[in-house]
TrEMBL record:
This is Large conductance mechanosensitive channel. GO terms for molecular function: mechanosensitive monoatomic ion channel activity. It is found in: Membrane. One of its GO terms (cellular component) is membrane. It is a multi-pass membrane protein. Pfam families: MscL. The keyword Ion transport applies.
Length: 126
């Protein structure tokens, strides 16, 4: 049991580290490539503005804009697809390294119930 808890703790810590690596990969490598092929579109800038930002008299933002950031959601979906694919490839490679389970040799078969009853019957006849 203790070994399993330690394995789980290590997996959680590694998942956090891998999450940062994958997020960086998606943000800084994949999204610029996708943006290039989609005509320079940056998904993280896509949003539906519900309320415009209100500026104060001195030019500072008094009330920030309120917007639905659906571009960030698209980034999260792409991130999920990449993480799922990478995990699939890792599990697939791990399963190839495991040696196949060998079937245990079958135990010798003993007499059936009918054979035992026949033997008892024959012994009782004697």
């Amino acid at each position: 049991m203790t070994g399993n808890v330690i394995d789980l703790a290590v997996a959680v810590i590694l998942a956090g580290a891998v999450s940062l690596v994958v997020k960086g990969f998606v943000t800084y490598i994949m999204m610029p490539i996708i943006g290039h092929f989609s005509g320079g579109l940056d998904f993280s800038d896509m949003k539906i503005i519900l309320d415009e930002a209100v500026l104060a008299a001195d030019g500072t933002v008094a009330t920030p804009e309120n917007a639905i950031m659906y571009g960030e959601w698209i980034n999260a979906i792409i991130n999920l697809i990449i993480v799922g694919f990478v995990l699939f490839m890792i599990v697939k490679a791990y399963n190839k390294t495991k040696k196949p389970v060998e079937a245990a040799p079958e135990a010798p078969k003993g007499p059936t119930d009918n054979e035992l009853l026949q033997e008892i019957r024959d012994l009782l006849k004697k």
